[in-house]
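Quick note —
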Amino acid sequence: MAFVQGSSSSNLNLWKQRLGRVPDSVWNAISLETLVLADNELSEISENINRLTRLRMLDLGHNQLTNLPDTLGDLHNLTDFLYLHDNHLLSLPRSLEKLTKLRYLNISENSFKALPECIMGMSSLIELRASDNSLTSLPDSIASLTSLRELHLRNNQLTSLPESIGSMSELRHIDLRGNPLTHLPSVIATLPRLEKLDLRWVSTMVRPLWTEDLEARGCAVYL
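Predicted structure written out below.
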């Protein structure tokens, strides 16, 4: 695979190679820990991806994927990053709930109308990026992401957030820019570690009085 950039026995970077299809030899590289397949005009990923049991990071961003194989959930050592942004995804396999060690997930710039339920099983998530989709609401079960520190929801169709967000005590950053918000629960003001609440480009909601309490304790509120 002479066209590979930045490859080693544990790292394979095939970024922007216009592959169209992932070579079968990639699925046989069982020592891989990081795999970059971004920007390759990919429309499918082989079920054989589950052979890469050592993967810690997988980048499938900037492709043309409409679905993912169930076997992606078999990658139990996927701990660092999973990039799925800028595809045509409407849903995720339920099997991804088994990725309980994953700390970063990016599903931005897809076609999600609801946050996939499998995400609620990713109990180690620290950062979730779901911007530029068509989300109209978040499920109460998002509160199961007790380790989450950053929640990025820019440019969706959200009108509010669930009251259960008040139990997500590790949250530091909530990005709600560009949503048609009409109401936000006051429990957000009780989040003990919140450092930034971004409400820019929101013209559909009167500023909640409790945001002043957040600012008084040092949280940056952008309006």
